[in-house]
């Protein structure tokens, strides 16, 4: 569970906010309202100018930021591809985090999970925008994170693919007890899949009702 | 060996014909660089005359303090030139790292060269120390300048990639590994290229100078080989030190990218 207290960062003002543990939380709001800043704070890519954030009672100021990011992995809206093949790009997350390489079965499973019908040996640079986005998600999931922080994971996908991906992603998260915090521009996705919705208005995020999806 | 021909005033003045020719060409072509050519060529003459007299004096009254003082001035100018050539504003931390890397890299290779390779006695003989230091300082300055430029440029253009790696739990060192390697290549390339082309594409300045002053080409070549290795050592040492310390200035203590 994340808890914010009197946090200020850029346009973002968070007097008080709790993001529940092991749940699926969607962040919605107009562009420029501070959604991405919120996610960056949770990944420790930025620190608040004022205030403090806790995770399960431990202040994020106290944790080692590199170790933390291996536990609370973030996937940016524009996916970052590294040199090499699809497999290289899947393995690099585990490599950077100092984890052992994934086996073939795990790799194939991660591709299936994100509806990515590609050869492992294919060059990652040749993938389309939507495929790169899904590859970046698969890479993050392969790291077995405790928290997944996703910035508009379906922005480059058509509706059908986006639906399949959300179904599989949320099912995987629930099965493995992963806490999912994702920004989405789609109110429908938020209403359909989220346990909690945070709406950011003029830099102030508020939990906007809770839904329980079984 | 025949004696070196001492150039008279009029012979030197005749060499200025080239500048006059250049001035005429830029004027006809309408290239707005006339003023710069005059300033540069006159500045060069004044600087060289001054340094000529200074060296004459130093060689005559050789003293370790004079040699060290001149070395400090050379280093100071080289460091300032790197600061001035950098695009954008350098942080105080980055400036300190540039100075530390250049001073340590240059001092380490220069002292090895003077004490071990040549085994000079006394060690401070300005006739050797000053020209050798000049070459080592000049090349290290170019190396650091190129490395700095490449690192800053790639940090900016590959910002998303560096942050992408950080988001996955990479340490800052791992996240910038490619950028650091590219900067090392950029810094070392001129030195490596000049070694490859040496003797075929170009006859290096020091060797040419020694040959012109009547030294046997074989001795000149021996010195050239030694100095070239000294330069490679100094450039790589300064640049490695600079890159290992320099990339850290782009991150804060929370391993966050500061750009």
UniProtKB/TrEMBL annotation, chain A:
GO terms for molecular function: ATP binding. The keyword ATP-binding applies. InterPro entries: AAA+_ATPase, ABC_transporter-like_ATP-bd, ABC_transporter-like_CS, P-loop_NTPase. Gene3D superfamilies: P-loop containing nucleotide triphosphate hydrolases (3.40.50.300). Keywords: ATP-binding, Nucleotide-binding, Transport. Pfam families: ABC_tran. Residues 2-212 form the ABC transporter domain. It comes from the Bacteria. The keyword Cytoplasm does not apply. PANTHER family: ABC TRANSPORTER I FAMILY MEMBER 17 (PTHR43423:SF1). This is ABC transport system ATP-binding protein. It comes from Paenibacillus forsythiae. The lineage of its organism: Bacteria, Bacillati, Bacillota, Bacilli, Bacillales.
UniProtKB/TrEMBL annotation, chain B:
It is found in: Membrane. It comes from the Bacteria. It holds the Pfam family UPF0014. The keyword Transmembrane helix applies. The chain crosses the membrane at residues 7-25, 37-55, 61-83, 95-118, 130-152, 195-213, 225-247. It is a multi-pass membrane protein. Keywords: Membrane, Transmembrane, Transmembrane helix. The keyword Transmembrane applies. Belongs to the UPF0014 family. This is ABC transport system permease protein. It comes from Paenibacillus forsythiae. The lineage of its organism: Bacteria, Bacillati, Bacillota, Bacilli, Bacillales.
């Amino acid at each position: 569970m994340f808890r914010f207290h009197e946090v200020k960062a850029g346009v973002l003002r968070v007097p008080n906010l709790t993001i529940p543990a092991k749940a699926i939380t969607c962040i919605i709001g107009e562009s420029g309202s501070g959604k991405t800043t919120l996610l960056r704070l949770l990944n420790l890519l930025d620190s608040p100018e004022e205030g403090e954030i806790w995770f399960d009672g431990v202040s994020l100021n106290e944790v080692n930021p590199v170790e933390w990011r291996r536990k609370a992995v973030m996937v940016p809206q524009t996916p970052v591809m590294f040199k090499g093949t699809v497999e290289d790009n899947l393995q690099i997350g585990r490599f950077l985090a100092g984890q052992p390489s994934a086996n073939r079965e795990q790799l194939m499973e991660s591709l299936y999970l994100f509806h990515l019908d590609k050869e492992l040996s294919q060059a990652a640079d040749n993938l389309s925008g939507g495929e790169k986005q899904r590859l970046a998600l698969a890479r993050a999931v392969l790291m077995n994170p405790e928290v997944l922080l996703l910035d508009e994971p379906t922005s480059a996908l058509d509706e059908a693919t986006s639906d399949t991906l959300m179904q599989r992603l949320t099912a995987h998260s629930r099965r493995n007890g992963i806490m999912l915090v994702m920004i989405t521009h789609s109110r429908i996705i938020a209403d359909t899949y989220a346990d909690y919705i945070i709406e950011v208005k003029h830099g102030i995020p508020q939990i906007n009702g809770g839904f329980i999806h079984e | 060996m025949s004696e070196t021909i001492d150039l008279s005033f009029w012979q030197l003045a005749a060499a200025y014909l080239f500048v006059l020719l250049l001035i005429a060409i830029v004027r006809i072509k309408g290239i707005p660089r006339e003023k710069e050519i005059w300033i540069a060529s006159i500045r060069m003459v004044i600087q060289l005359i001054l340094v000529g007299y200074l060296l004459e004096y130093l060689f005559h009254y050789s003293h370790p303090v004079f040699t060290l003082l001149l070395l400090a001035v050379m280093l100071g100018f080289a460091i300032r030139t790197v600061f001035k050539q950098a695009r954008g504003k350098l942080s105080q931390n980055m400036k300190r790292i540039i100075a530390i890397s250049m001073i340590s890299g240059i001092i380490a290779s220069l002292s090895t060269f003077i004490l071990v390779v040549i085994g000079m006695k006394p060690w401070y003989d300005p006739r050797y120390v000053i020209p050798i230091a000049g070459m080592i300082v000049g090349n290290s300055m170019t190396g650091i300048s190129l490395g700095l430029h490449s690192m800053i440029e790639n940090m900016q253009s590959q910002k998303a990639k560096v942050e992408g790696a950080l988001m996955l739990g990479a340490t800052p060192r791992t996240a910038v590994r490619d950028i650091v390697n590219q900067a090392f290549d950029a810094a070392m390339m001129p030195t490596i290229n000049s070694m490859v082309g040496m003797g075929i594409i170009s006859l290096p300045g020091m060797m040419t100078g020694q040959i012109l002053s009547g030294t046997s080409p074989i001795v000149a070549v021996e010195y050239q080989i030694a100095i070239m290795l000294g330069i490679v050592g100094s450039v790589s040492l300064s640049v490695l030190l600079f890159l290992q310390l320099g990339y850290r200035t782009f991150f804060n203590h929370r391993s966050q990218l500061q750009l």
